[in-house]
Amino acid sequence: MSKNKTTKKKYKELVNACIEAINNNCILFIHDISAYVELTRTEFYELGLDREQEILDAIENSRSHAKRRLTEKWLKSDSPTLNIALYKLISTPEERLAISGKNTEEDDNTDTKKAYLESLEMMNDESD
Long-range CB contacts (< 8 A, 24+ apart) of 112-117? Predict the structure, then answer.
């Protein structure tokens, strides 16, 4: 079923069905929609529904609501893990560095930079 074989009315009905499924089932990922509407995943993508702005907006709205609900739970939680996770989300870069035990942002990347430079040197040596 390609978009060319679908009428505008049928396409709009499918868009509305997708949005309703997202809203009623708290769908957070585009690829999960086809499980709730009468389309296969292939048909969903062939019709271009994965690029439909109304559907993308509904997914983003669903994600925002889920994040808000999680944040509310994390605020009320006594779990140290959840408390730290929330603090990292809402903290300033300086506070994040302090809580991670690092002195500067440079500390976060030093090992990665060193490994990258070493791999470049090795590639250069191999090409000679």
Answer: none
Give the number of C-alpha atoms closer than 13 A to the C-alpha of residue 119, restricted to the C-beta side: 6
Does residue 41 lie in a domain region? Answer: yes
Residue type (1 letter), 87? Y
Residue indicated by tokens 């996770």: 85
pLDDT at 67: 93
Could you list the residue range(s) of the whole structural domain that residue 49 is in? 1-66
Question: Which residue in this structure is represented by tokens 């730290």?
Answer: 84
Is residue 32 helix, strand or coil?
helix
State pTM to two decimals.
Answer: 0.67
DSSP 8-state class, residue 23: H
Q: Is residue 25 part of a domain?
A: yes
pLDDT digits (tens, 9 = 90+) for 40-86: 999 999 999 999 999 999 999 999 999 999 999 999 999 999 998 89
Question: What one-character DSSP code corresponds to residue 102?
Answer: -
- DSSP H helical ranges for the chain: 8-25, 41-46, 53-76, 80-90, 93-100, 105-127
User: Within a domain: residue 53?
Assistant: yes
